[in-house]
């Protein structure tokens, strides 16, 4: 895969899958706009890593549920690199709970980041992507496809992302914009590492998570990043409206 001459925006690129995706696309030649709500902290570190590796990157801090931040991220891409070819809607929020136990504020936050953020970021990017014949890759979740205990609202929000991907692909296929979705399974991100570490029995928690993967291990952010890169690449030019599940066999 070769992204030379391409510009990408990766949301939620301060850690985990977003950071791995930004680093990979930069290594593949892309100029990267790193979006992170934490600004110069973790997002700035991602930029620094790309630049230290000889790549091109710039920070666009802000929350994706804020339309002004979404507009600013696209403007950053255009002002620094002159174009926008790929948008990776990776920013996401997961709070455990059932429909009874999830606090209303957490319902609102998950829907705002996972669903509204995908809408607003895609809306802001669409004119530039239309001009470039670009690609959107939405990051869903295996939770949108297979039931998970204590993830009701998160699953609903990612189910919306999967459904939205299909509709967006139909809406924009005639304009030359492809839209795909990658649904990761349980991936060893910093957030998951923290969850395991803070559990009452970290060893049992890790064993439980690994036990539901037929491949016998957790995924890595880098593995998910490669799936995202492929969905955005010229090698996948015949692919739109697709949902790519990379979950260690959890849904087979």
From TrEMBL:
<comment type="similarity">
    <text>Belongs to the short-chain dehydrogenases/reductases (SDR) family.</text>
</comment>
<dbReference type="InterPro" id="IPR020904">
    <property type="entry name" value="Sc_DH/Rdtase_CS"/>
</dbReference>
<dbReference type="Pfam" id="PF13561">
    <property type="entry name" value="adh_short_C2"/>
</dbReference>
<feature type="domain" description="Ketoreductase">
    <location>
        <begin position="6"/>
        <end position="195"/>
    </location>
</feature>
<dbReference type="InterPro" id="IPR057326">
    <property type="entry name" value="KR_dom"/>
</dbReference>
<protein>
    <submittedName>
        <fullName>Glucose 1-dehydrogenase</fullName>
    </submittedName>
</protein>
<dbReference type="InterPro" id="IPR036291">
    <property type="entry name" value="NAD(P)-bd_dom_sf"/>
</dbReference>
<dbReference type="InterPro" id="IPR002347">
    <property type="entry name" value="SDR_fam"/>
</dbReference>
């Amino acid at each position: 895969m070769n992204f030379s001459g391409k510009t990408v925006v990766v949301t939620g690129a301060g850690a985990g899958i977003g950071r791995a995706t930004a680093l990979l696309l930069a290594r593949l030649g892309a100029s990267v706009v790193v979006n992170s709500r934490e600004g110069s902290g973790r997002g700035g570190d991602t930029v620094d890593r790309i630049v230290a590796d000889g790549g091109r990157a710039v920070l666009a801090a802000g929350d994706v549920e804020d339309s002004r931040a979404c507009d600013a991220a696209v403007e950053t891409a255009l002002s620094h690199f002159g174009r926008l070819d790929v948008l990776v809607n990776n920013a996401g929020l997961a709070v455990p709970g059932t429909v009874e136990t999830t606090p209303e504020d957490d319902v609102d936050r998950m829907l705002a980041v996972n669903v509204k953020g995908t809408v607003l970021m895609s809306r802001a990017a669409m004119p530039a992507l239309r001009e470039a014949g670009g690609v959107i890759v939405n990051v869903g979740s295996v939770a949108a496809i297979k039931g998970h205990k204590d993830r009701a609202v998160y699953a609903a929000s990612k189910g919306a992302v999967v459904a939205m991907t299909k509709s967006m692909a139909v809406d924009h296929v005639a304009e030359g914009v492809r839209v795909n979705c990658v649904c990761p399974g349980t991936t060893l991100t910093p957030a998951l590492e923290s969850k395991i570490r803070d559990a009452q029995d970290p060893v049992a928690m890790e064993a439980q998570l690994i036990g539901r993967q037929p491949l016998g291990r957790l995924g890595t952010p880098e593995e998910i990043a490669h799936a995202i890169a492929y969905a955005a690449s010229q090698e996948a030019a015949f692919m739109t409206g697709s949902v790519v599940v990379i979950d260690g066999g959890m849904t087979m």
